[in-house]
Each structure stands twice: as structure tokens, then as C-alpha cells.
Request: fold
Amino acid sequence: MSGPRHRSDEPAPPPGARGPAARGPGAPTTIPPGDPDAAHSPALASLDADVVECRRCPRLVAWREQVGRERRAAFRDETYWARPVPGFGDAAARILVVGLAPAAHGANRTGRMFTGDRSGDFLFAAMHRVGLANQPTSVSADDGLRLTGIRATAPVRCAPPANKPTPDERRACAPFLARELEIVDPRVAVVLGAFGWAALLDTLRDLGWAVPRPAPRFGHGAEVVVHRGPRTLTLLGCFHVSQQNTFTGRLTPDMLDDVLRRAQDLARD
Reply:
């Protein structure tokens, strides 16, 4: 990340933040790192601010802040965001990418969804290939990346230990995803992995969408349309962009490109 570096044990704000890390009631207000598109939507800006200040889940708060203090050796001189991570991208996106949760040394470090790790490299390179991103890399919150027609988010906004949020943590975070869905109002959701698929279906059902029972099963290439009155939302399943999938070839660049292009076709319709 650009900007001043800190070597203290206290996670400090990245560029764009105001005040020190929030530590509970009465702590200074923080704002998320630069998402220029959120500025065009007061509702999104308000949501982002609420996300950043959340401390609902003690286990997640403790873990994200511990990671921010101890740091990985490769990032020992960097300041970790170490807070919940808002969504990122086009405020009027017709395509929403739904992942799992921030990575401990990726988004938990940089403060921007899918930024600063190999998973993000794989995802944003694909977005760039199909014309949804202005550049193929995402290394820091102030690297100039802009998304057009697409937004990235997650059902859980804090980095969880072992990358495994509990059911209670997912439920505690669900209102943020619900608000984001209502504000952005996408036409297509590209869902990365079974966790995000189940979480999104639960949230849609809570919002009054007609989700089939039993719930549609996740699979790469799965395609499900749900309705709420005259509105429709198409869910597209895609294997997660984790290194476990991309390094083994379970998810290839062509496979991800195909899902994103399908999303573009559906969004245009």
C-alpha cells in the first residue's frame, strides 16, 4: 500500500480513513478506503460506514485485529485495515459478485474486497479481459482500479479464522448483504462457491424473493432465476477463485471468463 507505514501493534487507518481503528462505543468514526463509486450513492456510503464500524462478532473482531497486529512476514512493514470490508465497485452494477469473506492477508490488509491476494488477481484479471474492469490487477485500495457494471461483495465482512465463519456470524452479517442488494438492485449475481450461494439464497428469501424449496444446489455453471413481483435476479454458480481451485485447474481463466460473459449477456437482457 502507498502512504505512511506503521510498525506499532495497533492497526492504523489506511489512506482515506479518518482517525484510529474503531475500538468500540465512542471510538472515532472511520470510513472505508477509497471506493470512488460509493460517493455517487449516499445510501451505499452510509452502508459502507456502518459495515466498517461493526463489532457484532467477538471472535471475528479478535481475529481480524490479531492478524493486523502480527502480520505476515511479507507485509510486516504495512498497515493492515483490520476492520470489516465493504463491497467495492459500480454503485449501479447490474452484476453482483458474491464471495465468502475477506482474506486475512488480502482484503483484511488492504481494506478492499478481493484485493491484495492471488484470488483477487485471478478475479480482476478476468473482469478486465471481459471489459468490466479498467485494469487487470488489484493490489491496494488506491491503485486506480475501477469497475463498470459490476460490484464485488461478500456475505461475511470480517476475515474469519481458517476462512470458516460460523452460522451465527453469517446471520449477524446478513443485514449488510440485504441492504446492498436493495440499494444496488442487480440483475445477475455471480456466486463464488457453495457458502456464498447458500448465504445469498437465505438473504433473498428474507427479503421476500420467491426462492424455491428445497433450495437450488450450488454447482459451477448452475443458473437459477428468482422473482420478487416483477423483478428477477439470475444466480450463476462459479467455483470460488481460491488458490485451491485455481492452482489445481478446477477453475481455469476460461471457465471464469465464460461465467462473466454469461452474466453480461443476462444483464443486457
User: Anything to note?
Assistant: Residues 167-184 form the longest helix (18 residues).
